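Hi everyone, sorry if this is the wrong subforum. Our group has a chain we'd like a structural model of before ordering constructs, and none of us has done structure prediction before. Sequence below.
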Amino acid sequence: MLKSFFRTARRIVTPLMFKRIIRKAKSTLHPVIDISDDYTELLSGINAGWLERGNLYSFDYAMRNLPSEAPIIEIGSFCGLSTNLLAYYKQANSVKNKVVNCDKWQWNDTGQVGHSTFTYPEYLSFAKDAYIRNVQMFSRDDLPYTIELFSDEFFQQWRENREVSDVFGRTLRLGGPISFCFIDGNHAYDYAKRDFVNTDEFLESGGFILFDDSADGTKWEVSRVRDEVIATRRYDVVAKNPNYLFRKK
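Answer:
Right subforum, don't worry. Here is the predicted structure as tokens:
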């Protein structure tokens, strides 16, 4: 029935109107608290990335309830959409915690992308350049510390209190407690599980973890990690919007 409705809608509405209709239909099927405003609409229209609008509420909630001024960690940066949104909700809530994130901008694929003339490494090199430009524009007064490492490498250096250089040429000594971590790296089980274990090692009591693509019914393997976190009974589920936001007890 919905498919028939969407086919008909395509014939009589503009592309922008059609996008709004789809968004409304999805929100009816999977209700979320959506706190989008003019800024988030404009940003998501120009900053490439995959945005689950329910994450905005979780970002805002975590910012309003951080247990300390310990760093906020983001695993996976891509083109900087979520990074810029974290900065936005930091500003909205007068939060001073620095954001430290990591991305290697490398995937296992190395060949051409579909029938295009460019390869995955070229695509990801473009994404890195876009990330730098995007955060320098939209987070210019609150640049994150962006470390070009895989998350396993990042946490090992965090564990060793290493001094590292970020993509903007600044130095930072890693280590210490974490107040909030947004896990949005490789969604395969082994990777997502290690991201949780590494985060859990440093996350403060009262600190938050948000797993992207962890909604009920998802096919992503991060859902297995979500269930294992619940089973530990060391975390409270703060929100399912539709992704899971946890607070450490």
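For your construct planning: DSSP finds nine helices and nine strands in the chain. The chain has two domains: 1-31, 33-248.
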